[in-house]
């Protein structure tokens, strides 16, 4: 196994441990044992537990963005793009529980790389939704008075759904929550005459 392959193997193991036991209960001993190596050998690949966690988060961050961009590449209209973005984001976050906890767990605030990752994701999300809304307005599909306010509102709604959807992992109820939010977003509450 090459050095990069071994490093990726360690990250994979660490990711499964963190998902199962949480960041605080995951130990270097546990990771090393599962990787069939001595704890001291981990230091050849990573300087600390935090560096391993950073590698797990980097991997998950890349996977999330790739999932979203892959799904978005298959659709053309702004409505399809916004629907796809929200659905892909929620589906990916359900699978990437380590990344989700990085974005939400307050006790991780102490790590600068976590704060940086949160900011990076916030910018990614704002830019993506902003671009979709702008395209929709230009094409006459959306009527938005203030794109930034609309973007912030959509993000707030998505974040409000996250805990429910993470708990409803893969359920029909989880899918119907997303569908209901999208229907409300695209059609509103008011009857049109």
Distance between the termini: 67 Å
**Total tally of structural domains:** 2
CATH class categorisation of the largest domain: Mainly Alpha
The topology string of helices and strands comes to HHHHHHHHH
CATH architecture of the largest domain: Orthogonal Bundle
Please tell me how large the radius of gyration is.
19 Å
**Number of helix segments?**
9
Structural class by secondary-structure content: mainly alpha
Structural summary, described in words:
It is a single chain. The protein is mostly helical. The protein folds into 2 domains: 1-46, Homeodomain-like (Arc Repressor Mutant, subunit A, Orthogonal Bundle), CATH 1.10.10.60; 54-187, Tetracycline Repressor, domain 2. The chain is 77% helix and 0% strand. The chain contains 9 helices and no strands. Helix 1 (3-21) packs across helix 4. It is elongated and about 70 Å long. It starts with a helix and ends in a 6-residue tail after the last helix. The mean pLDDT is 87.
Give the helices and strands, then pairings.
Blueprint lengths: L2 H19 L6 H7 L4 H7 L3 H25 L4 H18 L1 H8 L7 H27 L8 H21 L4 H16 L6
Helix pairs in contact: 1-2, 1-4, 2-3, 4-5, 4-7, 5-7, 5-8, 7-8, 8-9
